[in-house]
Design a protein that fits this description.
2% strand, mainly alpha, elongated, two-stranded antiparallel sheet
Length: 217
């Protein structure tokens, strides 16, 4: 049987991961995976929307290449088809938006159950359980009393206290990791790029002045 100590750590780590990713971002990822791999009405609507959009582009291009004066009948037919396809695109977009909003609301509900709801369940279900025992006489009595709140035996760490300790430690670790990553990225950006060695052209030997060899007579 899994210890309550590890249950709490698992719930806190999972909640921290969800917070780091963001529930909205996670909902978007799951939505794209859903319509890509799961046969559903939403997936069929998305597939149909792409087909209609491609058809609308093709018909619109053909209409642009058709003279409205020389081939009016053909141009009018293509124009009606473009209008019809645009109407279908609007209906599909509205249906997909509604399905997407409903899907994401269900994902948020599941996330709440797996994070906040799970924390509430563990706190209530294990409120009288000692997560682990403190060494006897190591802490003052008032600290032992606080760590045993709300209903754990005196001298032990309760689920509520363990949730607080674990949550604080994990959040601190996440903040530390983000801070260090930002510092490393900033240091990397500030590192000066070594200048290229420019070879100087060697000048030729200087011409020596011609000595005045003439003698004055």
């Amino acid at each position: 049987m899994v210890s309550v100590l590890w249950i709490v750590i698992g719930v806190v780590v999972f909640s921290a991961a969800i917070s780091a990713i963001g529930s909205d971002n996670l909902g978007e990822y799951i939505w794209y995976l859903w319509i890509a791999f799961v046969p559903s009405k939403a997936a069929r609507n998305v597939k149909r929307l792409r087909e209609v959009q491609r058809e609308a582009i093709a018909v619109s291009t053909e209409r642009s290449n058709t003279s409205s004066q020389d081939e009016f009948a053909k141009w009018a037919k293509l124009n009606r088809k473009v209008d019809k396809l645009r109407g279908e695109i609007e209906k599909l977009n509205a249906a997909i938006s509604t399905q997407r909003a409903f899907f994401k609301s269900q994902i948020r509900r599941v996330i709440w159950i797996l994070t906040t709801g799970m924390k509430i369940f563990v706190r209530i279900n294990y409120r009288k359980v000692a997560v682990f025992w403190l060494p006897k006489g190591m802490f003052p009595s008032w600290i032992e009393w606080m760590l045993s709140l709300t209903s754990a035996p005196r001298g032990s760490v309760s689920v509520s206290a363990w949730f607080m300790i674990t949550d604080y430690a994990i959040k601190g670790a996440v903040v530390f990791a983000i801070t260090k990553t930002a510092e490393m990225a900033g240091a990397k950006r500030k590192t000066p790029v070594p200048a290229a060695n420019v070879s100087e052209k060697k000048s030729g030997p200087e011409k020596k002045g011609t000595p005045n060899e003439g003698k004055t007579k």
